[in-house]
Automatic annotation (TrEMBL):
Stated role: Essential component of the vacuolar proton pump (V-ATPase), a multimeric enzyme that catalyzes the translocation of protons across the membranes. Required for assembly and activity of the V-ATPase.
Protein's name in the database: V-type proton ATPase subunit a
Pfam families given in the database record: V_ATPase_I
Organism of provenance: Brachypodium distachyon
Listed GO CC annotations: vacuolar proton-transporting V-type ATPase, V0 domain
Length: 749
């Protein structure tokens, strides 16, 4: 039935018949009636297709015959018209009859000798235009040049019987002499797919056949049109119920597919099914099963029993339309293991915030906000429509875009950028020019005349000589602080994960050394950044971090930020060195020891009892004893430790993309503003101003709002998938996919 429905769907699509989305109201039918109805419709449609195909083939053949008659007739008529000058040419020249009899042209011989046995014959037909040249070459070689090939374009496209598409064809006439040549030519015609048609030499007969063929074509056109109308009506009647029938068959198939998963208990004569269900749904499932027992009038009630299993359960997170998109972003990396910490909870805030750090401009943020609000306000209408891939993706992530827009406005206010233009929103600038003309602002700099700007970057930094060094320093240090904070959050989540599962080894020999190693180096760097900001020190942090490794006991000099800094650095360096073997060695050896203690002597339990096979039970001592492989565990721990140590450096450096993309976005926005808008505004012409404004608007929309937002989105995605989630997230689980009739409409068979 599913195959028949697919066949109907294909036929409806091919015919271009519109099937109604809302099926017509018809009485309910059971599956047996539907099967009979589908078989009847299929038989009727196949019969109509066969008849239509036969008629169409006949029509195509007659159309080709008509074209051959008109074109080949013209070729033959022109060859007859050339007979008189040929005769005169032969009479004017003196030829030796015996010597030149075989050297005359075949066409001229045929005209002279008429319909005698040694006369010229011809074959006429039609061939694909693309094959005409190769066809002529093959004929020439096969007859060794003893033929005359004439061709003319058919003039109108002809339906190809195999592909059903309209193709260009060429009418040909081949003049030859002899039976052998005829046999060769006909075989070549067959191999090239050329259709041959008989054309009489007499013009009267040609006209008579042409009239007969034209009359038959006209009759066939009427018959074909009537057949197509009848077939379309039949397809419309099927199409009106196709969706309802498809859902009905899909539901039945899904039921049987699920029943096939059940086991048949021969002793109790019942079906036993094992499956997963969420804990909160147990009472609902029991109620539904109880109702099913009553409705089916079953003598035996359905038993719902919880069972123990060694299999890992599937993962199911209850999401709504707001959190679903964030969960999908995490699931694209990997589905969480059962009872594993879910990164999507934190990504709801951290993902759009890191995006905004790179995209910070409150003018661009407002544009994104308007787009997100448009999608949210038209939510009901858009959810019921079929959207293209790009719109569907944007609509699915509408709440992600909303948060990204809000955080972009917030970060834009901190950066004080509105399409790269600073504004005095929160009060006056803390700086002023040395003189009224402000001519030395870019050379001598500005003077601080009042308290710092209350919120965000002071507008006076814009265009000053130290703008770039200041903003670079600010954004770079800010990126490191955010990176260290998020990586610490990831390691903290690994602690809560281990604590929830009661895994003391992971806490002692993974969480603690990881926290020590990361914060001894990069946590210390973050601390130095904060101290430098608070104290206004001019110390070089690059120098401090490099010589912390190269010369730990050396004098810091002017790079000393606080008392006891050198001693603290030596301590932190020693802790970082100790943390590496702490991560690497204890855990595998402790696991080996615990394994030996747990199963010491257990392998002798089954000696002397031949009746019991220890391998028959999945949880038997021998089966579990064989599971532990020390070398494998040690190599895995070594890889994990090396990856963390190297990753701590590379991941911290990776967070510098926040600074790089923020700087790139700001500079690109500045270039568009100054080189397009301001430049155009400097002209007096209104047309130049309008052109400048239009180009600026398009550059902002397509480059800054679309390409830059996509770039920032992908970089934020990378920071979450690699730098944040690899600290605690395994992502090797599988999704809970409950049986659902509601989802069948969108699923493939």
């Amino acid at each position: 039935m599913s195959r028949k429905l697919n066949y109907f769907s294909d036929q409806i699509n091919k015919a271009g018949v519109k099937s109604s989305v809302r099926p017509a109201l018809q009485p309910e039918i059971d599956l047996e009636e539907l099967e009979a109805k589908l078989a009847e419709h299929e038989h009727e449609l196949l019969e109509m297709n066969t008849n239509s195909g036969t008629l169409q083939q006949t029509y195509n053949e007659l159309l080709e015959f008509k074209l051959v008659l008109s074109k080949a007739g013209g070729i033959l008529a022109s060859s007859h018209n050339h007979a008189t000058p040929a005769d005169r040419e032969l009479d004017e020249h003196i030829y030796d009859n015996e010597g030149d009899e075989g050297n005359g042209y075949l066409l001229e011989q045929g005209i002279h000798q008429g319909t005698s046995e040694s006369g010229v014959r011809f074959v006429s037909g039609i061939i694909l235009k693309s094959k005409a040249l190769a066809f002529e070459r093959m004929l020439f070689r096969a007859t060794r040049g003893n033929m005359f090939f004439n061709q003319a374009s058919a003039g109108e496209p002809v339906n190809d019987p195999i592909s059903g598409e309209e193709v260009e064809k060429t009418v040909f006439v081949v003049f030859f002499s002899g039976e052998q040549a005829k046999a060769k030519i006909l075989r070549i015609c067959a191999s090239f797919g050329a259709s041959c048609y008989p054309v009489p030499e007499e013009m009267v007969k040609q006209r008579q056949i042409f009239r007969e063929v034209s009359a038959r074509l006209a009759d066939l056109e009427v018959t074909l049109d009537a057949g197509i109308q009848h077939r379309n009506k039949a397809l419309e009647s099927v199409g009106s119920q196709l969706w309802r029938w498809t859902i009905m068959v899909k539901k039945e198939k899904a039921v049987y597919d699920t029943l096939n998963m059940l086991n048949f208990d021969v002793t109790k004569k019942c079906l036993v099914g094992e499956g997963w269900c969420p804990i909160f749904a147990k009472s609902q499932i029991k109620d539904v099963l109880q109702r099913a027992t009553l409705h089916s009038n079953s003598q035996i009630g359905i038993i719902f029993h919880e069972m123990d299993t060694t299999d890992s359960p599937p993962t199911y997170f209850r999401t709504d339309k707001f959190t679903n998109a964030f969960q999908e972003i995490v699931d694209a990396y990997g589905v969480a293991r059962y009872e594993e910490a879910n990164p999507a909870v934190y990504s709801v805030i951290t993902f759009p915030f890191l995006f905004a750090v790179m995209f910070g401009d409150w003018g661009h943020g407002i544009c994104l906000l308007l787009g997100a609000l448009f999608l949210i306000l038209r939510e009901k209408k858009l959810s019921s429509q079929k959207l293209d891939s790009f719109t569907e993706m944007a609509f699915g992530g509408r709440y992600v875009i909303l948060l990204m827009a809000l955080f972009s406005i917030y970060c834009g206010l901190i950066y004080n950028e509105f399409f790269s233009v600073p504004f005095h929103i929160f009060g006056k600038s803390a700086y002023a020019c040395r003189e009224n003309s402000c001519s030395d602002a870019h050379t001598a700099g500005l003077l601080k005349v009042r308290d710092p700007y209350p919120f965000g970057v002071d507008p006076s930094w814009r265009g000053s000589r130290s703008e770039l060094p200041f903003l670079n320093s600010l954004k770079m240090k800010m990126s490191i602080l955010m990176g260290v904070s998020q990586m610490n959050l990831g390691i903290l989540l690994s602690y809560f994960d281990a604590k929830y599962h009661g895994n003391v080894l992971d806490i002692r020999y993974q969480f603690i050394p990881q926290m020590i190693f990361l914060n001894s180096l990069f946590g210390y760097l973050a601390l130095l950044i904060l101290i430098k900001w608070c104290t206004g020190s001019k110390s070089d942090l690059y120098h401090v971090m490099i010589y912390m490794f190269l010369d730990p006991a050396g004098d810091l000099g002017e790079n000393q930020l606080f008392w006891g800094q050198k001693e603290l650095q030596i301590l932190l360096l020693l802790l970082a060195i100790v943390a590496v073997p702490w991560m690497l060695f204890p855990k595998p050896f402790i696991l080996k020891k615990l394994h030996k203690e747990r199963f010491q002597g257990h392998t002798y339990r089954f000696l002397g009892t031949s009746e019991m096979d220890p391998d028959s039970e999945p949880d038997s001592a021998r089966a579990r004893h064989d599971d532990f492989n020390f070398s494998e565990v040690f190599v895995h721990q070594m890889i994990h430790s090396i990856e963390f140590v190297l990753g701590a450096v590379s991941n911290t450096a990776s967070y510098l993309r926040l600074w790089a993309l923020s700087l790139a976005h700001s500079e690109l926005s500045t270039v568009f503003y100054e080189k397009l808008l301001l430049l155009a505004w400097g002209y007096d012409s209104l047309i130049v101003k309008l052109v400048g404004l239009t180009v600026f608007a398009f550059a902002t929309a397509f480059i800054l709002l679309m390409m830059e937002s996509l770039s920032a989105f992908l970089h934020a995605l990378r920071l979450h998938w690699v730098e944040f989630m690899n600290k605690f997230y395994h992502g090797d689980g599988y999704k809970f996919k409950p049986f659902s009739f509601a989802l069948l409409a969108d699923e493939e068979d």
